[in-house]
Known about the structure:
The structure holds three protein chains of three kinds.
Chain A (H helix, E strand, L loop, with lengths): L1 E4 L2 E4 L14 H10 L6 H17 L5 H12 L6 H7 L6 H6 L10
Antiparallel strand pairs in A: 1-2
Chain B lengths: L35 H4 L12 H15 L1 H9 L11 H6 L6 H16 L1 H5 L1 H4 L6 H10 L8 H5 L6 H14 L5 H13 L7 H19 L14 E4 L10 H15 L3 E3 L16 H18 L3 E4 L3 H15 L13 E2 H10 L15 E3 L3 H6 L8 H13 L30 H22 L3 E4 L2 H10 L10 E3 H8 L8 H9 L2
Parallel strand pairs in B: 1-2, 1-3, 3-4, 5-6, 6-7
Chain C lengths: L1 H29 L15 H14 L1 H6 L1 H21 L9 H30 L1 H6 L2 H22 L5 H12 L10 H16 L7 H4 L4 H4 L12 H4 L16
Helix pairs in contact in C: 1-9, 4-5, 5-7, 7-9
Amino acid sequence: MAYDVNGTAVEHDExxxxxxxxxxxxxxxxxxxxxxxxxxDEEHWAVVxxxxxxxxxxxxxxxxxxxxKSIKKSMGPEVGNxxxxxxxFPYGPAKQACKIAGLPKPTxxx
Amino acid sequence: MAPLDNNEPxxxxxxLKIPQIECGAMADTNTxxxxxxxxxxxxxxxxxxxxxxxxxxxxxxxxxxxxRAFRVYLDTCVKCGACTDKCHYFLGTGDPKNMPxxxxxxLRSVYRRYYTFAGKYFPWLVGARDLxxxxxxxxxxxxxxxxxxxxxxxxxxxxxxxAEISMAAREVLDSVGxxxxxxxxxxxxxxxxxxxxxxxxxxxxxxxxxLEEDLEDETGIAVKIPLxxxxxxxxxxxxxxxxFAEPHIDGLLGYAKVxxxxxxxxxxxxxxxxxxxxxxxxxxxxxxxxxxxxxRQAAKDLGVKRIVFGECGHAWRVGYSFLNxxxxxxxxxxxxxxxxxxIMEFTSDAIDDGLLKIDKSRNDEFVxxxxxxxxxxRGSAMGRQEGGQFDLPRKVLKAxxxxxxxxxxxxxxxxxFCCGGGGGLLTDDLMDLRIKGAKPRMNALQQVTEDHGxxxxxxxxxxxxxxFSKVMPKFGYEMDNIMSVHQLVAxxxxxxxxxxxxxxxxxxxxx
Amino acid sequence: MISTVYAVLFYVxxxxxxxxxxxxxxxxxxxxxxxxxxxxxxxxxxxxxxFRMAREVVLFESLFKSNKWIWLFAYLFHFGMLLVLLxxxxxxxxxxxxxxxxxxxxxxxxxFAMLAGLIGLLIRRIFQQRIRYISAPSDYLMLALxxxxxxxxxxxxxxxxxxxxxxxxxxxxxxxxxxxxxPVEPVLLIHLGSVALLMIIFPISKLMHAxxxxxxxxxxxxxxxxxxxxxxxxxxxxxxxxEGIPAPEEKK
Lengths: 110, 511, 252
C-alpha cells in the first residue's frame, strides 16, 4: 500500500496513514487529500500546518478544541468553529486532517 | 472514506424488532489484524504461529482450568433460545452468528471436540467440529462483532455470559498471534506513555493548561486541572479521550468545576493518565493487571488518599469490580471512602451536601435522556443501593436539567443496549457494524424524540460518546446531540464568585 | 433374564450419574473464578444471592423476563417433572411418607403438564427459525428421549396399567441389592430403559445445566468487590509488579 508522489512510492497503512512520518511533503499532502476527496485550499492548509507544528512540539495531535481555538485566533471565528472544521474535513478534523498532515492516527476512544 | 452525513437519516423503527436471519450477512466484516509491533509488547507472538492449532487447543484447556465461568458456560447451555434476540448486533445485522448462543457455539463446538466425551466420540451428534484455519478466521470475524455488553447474560436462565466466551476467544487468538490491531496497538501505547492516545506528559500538561484557560475565560475564576500534584487528596483516573475528544472534554471541565466547588484537592497523574483498560476486551488477565497496576503506582507515588474514576464505561467495570483484585489491597488509601469511587458518586454526594450551587435553567435548551452504558449497567454498581448505577446518573441529570425523559424500559437500565462501539470495536474499519449495532439504541432514542421532544442524550462512557457522535448523524441527529453528564453539570454549576448580569437579574427576580 | 439386565442397567446408570456428575461438580467447584463478574444489579450480600438464586431456581426469573413462551413451556415441563418425580418416591419406600402420599394425585396429572411443556419446546425448536438454527441433533434427541419417558410413564398410569406391585418390589429389591422379578411389559421396559439412558448421559450432556446453574459466577457471586478483595489461587501466584514509578525517560 503506497501513495504515488510524482513517481515516488510512499508507504501507508490499511487506513491510509503514512508509515514513515519523515516522508511527508506538501505534494504528498495533496495526493492524500485527493484520495480523501478533499480539495486543499488555504483553510485546509492552515489546519494541516497547525497540526504539523503542534506535533513537532508535542509528538501528538492536538485536541480538536485546541486546534479550533488556534484556528479561531489565526483565521477568525467563521473558520475556527467545530462545524466548519467538519465541513473542511468531513471525516473529522482529528483523524482526516492528521492523515493529510502525515501524522499518526489518534488512537483510543476518540 | 465517505463522509458520515450524506445518507438519508434512518427512519424510526421498533428498537426491539427481531430481524429474519440472514446467513453470512456479516461474514466479510473483519477488523484490521495487529502487526507484530502491536502484539509483542503484550507478550503475544507477533504473527500466526506455525503450530497454532496445538497452541490454541491447549489454551482452551488452560482457560477452562483457570476460569470457572468459561468452563461452566461452555457446559451448561441448553440452547433454549432466550438470548437469540438480545444482541444489538444481531438485531442490527440479522446475521445468525451474531445471536449470543451461536456466537458462543463457534468456540463451544471446538471445546466439545477436544475436551468432552460426547464431542470426542459423537461430534456430529452434539455439533462438535475440528479446529481448522477457517474456524480460527471465523472466530476472528465474529468475536470481533461482540461488544461484551452482557445483555445476553441478563436474559440467560443460567447467566451464561457471552462476554466471557468472547474475551476467552480473543485470548486464544492472541496466544497464536492473531491479535486485533485496534486493541493491541492501544495497549502497547499505554504501556509506553500511560494512556491510549499516546499523549506524553508535556502534551498533557499543555492541554490541561489550555483547558484551565478556557475555564477561566468562561467563569472568571481560576479553576485548576492539576497534574502530578503530590499530596493531593484525590487522584482522578479518567479516560484519555477526556483530554482530546468532544464531548468528552466538556465532561472533564465538569469534574474540575465539581471538585473546585467541593473544595477538595485533586490531581491527574501523567503516569496513569488513562482509565480505559483494553486488557479486559482481549480477555488478558495479565495485561489488564499491568494496566491497572499503574493506578496503584501513581496513587502511592502521589500520596493521595482517594481514587475517583471519570466517565468511562468499561473502565468503571474494571475499577469497581476488578481493581481491588488486580492491584489491591488499597490499605494505604482513606478507608472512609469507597475505593475506587465514581465521579457520579462524588457529584451525587456533593449535591446532597449542598456543595454545588446549581442553576438548572442553564440547561433549558436541552431535553435530555440518558443512555446507560453497558459495562456500568451490567458489570458494576454505584452508591450504597442496588441499582445505584442507574439511579445516580439520573439523579444528577435531574438535579441539573429541567427536562428529562427515559427511553423505553426494555432498552435502559439492566436491559440497556450497547452503543454499538464497545468491547474494542470502536475503530473505523468496523464502521458498518457500528452503525448497524447502534440501530436499536437509535430507534429507542427516536421514539422519545417523537413522543417527548428529546433533543440530547447523555452518557458516562468515552466509547459511547465517540460512537454516538459518529453514528448519530446517520439517524437524523447532530454529532453534538450526545453529551457528557458532567458537561450538563458544568453548564449548571455556578462557582462562588462567578456572577454575570443574567445571574444578577435572575437573583433580583426570585426572592 | 430381563430383570437381571435391567437391574445391572440401573446400577450402572446410577453409578454413572452420581459419579460422573459428582466429578463434574467437583471440577466446577475447584476451578477458580479469577474475577468478580456478577451480572449487575446484583445482591450486595450473601443472603441476597441466596434470594436471587432461589428466584432463579423456583421461578426461572431471568427466563421469565427474557422470553415468556420459553418460560411457559420450560416451567410446565420442569415443575410437571418435579411433581412426577416426587410421586415416584413411593416406588422406593416400604412406608410411604405422608407428603409423598399427598402429592400422588397432583403427580399423576402433572405428567400432562410435563408433556405439554416438552411438546411446546419441541415445536419451538422445529419451527422457530432462530432456535432451529442453534439446534444440534442432540438437542432434538434430548427432547425426544424426555418425551419417550413422559409418554410411556403417562401411558402406564392412564392407558395400559402395569403390575405396579411387582415394579415396586423390583425397585425395593434393587435398593437392597436383590434382583426381584419385574413384569415384562414393553411400555415399562421402554420407560425404565429410557430413564436409565437419561441418567447415563446426564453428566456428559447439557443436562448439566441443573448443577451448572449453582456454579455460574454471573449469578452466584456477591457484588462486593470494593469491600472485599477477591483473589484466585493462580492469580495470587503471579510475579509481583514494581511498586514505585520508574523515573521519567530522558527527553532528547
